[in-house]
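Running this now, will post back.
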Amino acid sequence: MKVYRIEVYSKVFDTRASVRLKKLKEWGFSEINHLFLRDVYTIEKQLTSFELHQIASSLSNPVTQGTFILTGKTKISSSEKFDWAIEIGFLPGVTDNIANTTREIIEDLLSKKFNDNENVYTSQIIFIKGDVDSHKVKLIADSQYNPIIQRVHIKDYRQYIKEGGMDFIIPKVRLSQKLEVSNVDLEVADEELVKIGKQGIVNKDGTRQGPLALDLSSLKTIQKYFQKHRRSPTDIELESLAQTWSEHCKHTIFANPMDDVKDGLFKHYIKRATEKIRKKKSAKGRSSSGRDFCVSTFLDNSGAIKFDDKYLITHKVETHNTPSALDPFGGSITGIVGVNRDTIGFGLGAKPVANFYGFCLADPKKDISLYKDSNLTQKMLSSRRIMDGVIEGVNSGGNCSGIPTPQGFLFFDERYRGKPLVFVGTVGLIPQKIKNKLSYIKKAKTGDYIVMIGGRVGKDGIHGATFSSEALHSGSPVTAVQIGDPITQKKLSDAIVKEARNMLLYNSITDNGAGGLSCSVAEMAKESGGCVVDLEKVPLKYSGLAPWEIWVSESQERMTLAVPLKNWKKFADLMEKRGVEATVIGEFTNSGKCVVRYNKKTIMDIDMQFLHNGLPKKILRTKYNPVQNREPIITQKNDYTKDLLVMLERQNIASYEFITDQYDYLVQGELVFSPLEGCGRVNSEISAIRPLLSFSKAVVMSQGIYPSYSDIDTYHMAAASIDTAIRNLIAAGVNLEKIALLDNFCWCSSNDPYRLGQLKRATKACYNYALYYQTPFISGKDSMFNDFHGFDKDGKEIKISIPPTLLISSLGIIDDVSDLVSLDVKKPGDLIYLLGVTDDELGGSEYFAMHFGIGKQVPKVNARRNKKLYQSFHKATRAQIVASSISINRGGLGVALAKMSMGGMLGIEISLKNIGGKVSRNDFALFSESQGRILVTIDPKNQDRFEKIMKGNSFTQIGRVLSSRSIIIRGINGNIIVKTDVGDALKSYRKTFEGY
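Update: finished.
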């Protein structure tokens, strides 16, 4: 087969090269004087010279770029002198999105299809000029590639010229294994069963297939099942059970009995809270303020609420923590496109209208070496590489899919160094009825074809579900890493949501996520009562995959549908026209069995009841002892100006505009409230979209998260997260009656009774406060083993566990966008009010953290008082007399005041003398994180009306907006304790991530 290289270089200033050079210098490679890039397309196909030039023209801009076409015999000399050339490309089998798109471009251009032995591969050459030796260039290369998914090739200038350029490398997957199904002997000692559960099935060469994450009791249960059937399980049967029973899929910690909670934490606290709320709301009748607006909760890929009488809004938030620790880009892009598919897979298919992100990370400015193995050969990526990678992954996934990404957050703690937390979410829109059929009802029927659409199957993503169900360690498999392809998925999404759905061409649809086909097909088979799959029909990226690998692979951009026989041709023709591969791989039945065949031989035959419900129950026990922390000793002073400016520089408070501006939040034209508010462009806690442009109704999104409070009490951590998620929407003008919640628990060491005790307290708080506020949970997800087991740079064994983390996402509907309120102060003379009570509650606060302390007075939520306040405040926003408002969150009153002032680029004058509550000191008054507080500005002409509406609540006028840019705060005794300029505050706020 002929192989060609087309190298594209820039003839003008290349921003990418400039950014790359800047980063390398920041990372300590000051010897580099100059850097330039070349994009490489390696094409494996018989082509004519004319065709090659056509392709080169289509891959470059003739005004700004030039090309080299290499045929193997052609020698190349660089157009510019350099010292080193570093070429980075993907390893065999790793998804190459640019190559996939390039292949389609070539096929369209030449009207020629690539066959199975032909392909396109991409890479990039980094040319470096500077006084860099061979050791240093290796370090530079290491900083630019991830050995888990990429290859690197280095040449100096002399070698490059002598050999006529870089080498022709074809990263093609070549598998020579025998494609056979093996039987697994479970009649072994318990010790061997434990090994099978932890390390996997033994191959013929003595190696193991990878973690099953099955404990001894689960394997004993499987052993008994097959003893009853008088045979051994096949490898595919055991792998399938492992996927289906994994913590990632079955959420066993939330489902199993825990102490006296016989029905498990999920049913007892989360689901029961929603059921009670819905029952109570339904009993109120059909009044707009009382009726139940939930439609689908915990039943489908996403939760759904009513947007209006004709449409539903869906929401789902996922985590992709473990994959992001190994390959941040792949982990986060897979997360965001995966949760997009959760939206497409809701009901008969919702349209993704907005994305959400949240990153819990370690300090990117510190590089602490960690290793997965005792030989110190498996080095973990640096915190900066992880941060850059997860940001880029969500960027690529959202921007390339044409889905706006307006809402998100950053949180930093050193305990996320072993495992970052990567939250990704998607809001969707779907009509309530499609051709008089309820859109949120789906059911695979007996006789329906099992159809797989989208991307092909490869080794990427094997053991993803079981891998994410345990701690990260030296045995964590490389094959668990995937890279999503948003372009392929965009075609799939449009073909389904814009066309096939509205033609009712299928009866059910779901995402091929965790566990791949093994979970998606088996889950849908519950709807019909059984299935039979012909595995050899599944389209593969390359030959040589074992049957069990095909069945459990989590290769991306795939969905499974139930298509009636009568609709198959119409559906297949539609998919072909849209460039979406669609394949019949089996049939749904009512046999009560999940049957898989390979080349007409049955290799899996398991009762549906056992597959889904055979997992043994395990009674979990908890132990909880309150943590006793000391209050940090902080000397009082007269001036807190510097403290406020330093607080604005803290990573958990500072502007992250550098992320916001990378994400397209304007696409689809829905944006009502920007994630950057006011002329000062302050990161907002909320964003709002109008998914139907002809309607005045809007969807408002926010979140609450306080991992630091878990160091004191997870009950109050959860309460604060809920109160904040709700209050953020209230401050923007949303009615409490129109708010729904999502929960994402990310825990650590969940086999530890103490950690389970913390979990139990957090879920109990979720129950209590959801009921207090009457805000139902509509969806959720948990990730229970966010621990890193490894070694430090000295070879010392270490364990790093994240702080127990609960993300509460909030989703609200506002009837009229004109009722929305932004955070930026509007005009001089406006009055500033503080709503709510301020106490000395700084335990787990940013202020104490700034002084290297934790404290013990964690903020406690008074839901009864807060609810009354929120209801009254909503009346004020409905009356449109609130000029600006901001929910007081991390950093307390001082930070909220600065944000309002910076947002409007106007000064403020404040007095803390009458703020109420039990506040003993000026700094505590400034930086207490007491919950339930909102900061508001009012036009003086609306003062009487506002105070009348708020009567009966705790509120006080604390200042006014100035025409100057001065920020003046007087303390409890009337003395000036803060005096600065809005410009100086903004400089501090933007300083931390400047240049990122």
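The radius of gyration is 29 Å. More later if anyone needs it.
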